[in-house]
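Task 17 of the worksheet. Students: predict the tertiary structure of the chain below and write it out as structure tokens. Keep your answer in the requested format; marks are given for formatting as well as content.
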Amino acid sequence: MFRRVEDVKTIWAQEAEKTLAVFQAIPDAAAHQAVDPQHRDLRRLAWHLVETVLELPQNLGLRVKGPVGLGPDGFIAAPPPATMAEIAMTYQAVSASLLDHLGSWSNTELGRSFTLYGESWTGAYAFYVLVSHQTHHRAQMTVLMRQAGLKPPALYGPTREGWAEFGMEAPKV
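Model answer:
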């Protein structure tokens, strides 16, 4: 759990870079890859992450801004942009805004209680959830990337293909 705002900012910056790496590895031609038509495709999952960086911090009093805003229902009223590059640029903007707004917080805010989604969460827990939520959807995206024949970027260590860059054989599955 987070105890210092500086730690939230450090982790968020690192995780945002990983998210951008995933977005940038998805060509527009593959952005419609989904498990099936009833589930989010890669483009919609990426847009959902933009949406969440705008939405969740609002519940903590942080008015994160970006090139798109939230509608009255708390979700982005606009559909996802046509290109992954546009989604990546929008994500960069909202992520930078989140980091800027975190600068107004003191460490005390991390221990303060907020009501989110009908529950009482501390500020620290809310940021833990924000990071975990993003990681969860990034993992979904890397599976969809594999199904689309794409190579996901190495995020927390080498990908199956990445072991060769270390002169090593990939672990057996």
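Marker's comment: The chain has five helices and two strands. The mean pLDDT is 94.
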